Structures are given as C-alpha cells and as structure tokens.
Amino acid sequence: MKDGEKVAKLRQLKGIKQESLAFDLSISQSELSRLENLDVIEKEILSQIADALGVSQEFLEKFDLDSALYNISNKIENSTISENSNGISQIFNPLDKVVELYERLLQSEREKIEILKNK
C-alpha cells in the first residue's frame, strides 16, 4: 500500500476530516490531498502526520487495512463469552472496544475544535 493511501485510510478510520488533519499539520487541505496521493512520503513529513493521527511512525509505515479488517473480523467471530456471579452470560465483542475508542477519539477532536474556536 502506498504511503499516501495509508495516511488517507487511517485518517478515515479515525473519523478525521482532511481539513482537520491539514490544520493540525499547518498545511492546506489541498496539500494534504496531494500527500494522500503520493506513493512515498518523506520520513519527516510522515512522522509529523503520524503524530497528528496519534500513532507511531512505525505503525503508519506498516499499516495494512486488509490485515486490520481481517483481525477485527476474526476477533468478532471469536468473541469471548463469560458468566458472571449471577449466572448471566456476557459476550465481549472486540468491535465494541473499537467503537468505544473511536467515540473517545471523536470526542477528543470535538474538544480540540471547541478550544480552538474559543481562542
């Protein structure tokens, strides 16, 4: 997968708009769009993008959407079932944790926007 594609897919999975990420990087939305179309992004820029997305540069470099989706799908099929002290079965679905993380990230971005609006 091309560096630009990795940036775009991870940005989309995190629910971040181009405009927001571009703002965090102090570049224009059109410049971010250009970066997302590149085969190879310079290491320094890729590092800045990874920081803005809240991941390590290594994670971004090795990011593979197909593997991520496969792992999520596989974990859903193998969800853990446990029984609490009341004898009630509970199903722990890893996708619920992904959704919870996504919602926390989205709330964090909303809070950042509010802080910036109030400056």
TrEMBL record:
Residues 7-60 form the HTH cro/C1-type domain. Transmembrane segments: none annotated. CDD domains: HTH_XRE. One of its GO terms (molecular function) is DNA binding. SMART domains: HTH_XRE (SM00530). InterPro entries: Cro/C1-type_HTH (IPR001387), Lambda_DNA-bd_dom_sf (IPR010982). It holds the Pfam family HTH_3. PROSITE patterns: HTH_CROC1. It comes from the Bacteria. This is Transcriptional regulator with sigma factor-related N-terminal domain. It comes from Belliella baltica (strain DSM 15883 / CIP 108006 / LMG 21964 / BA134).
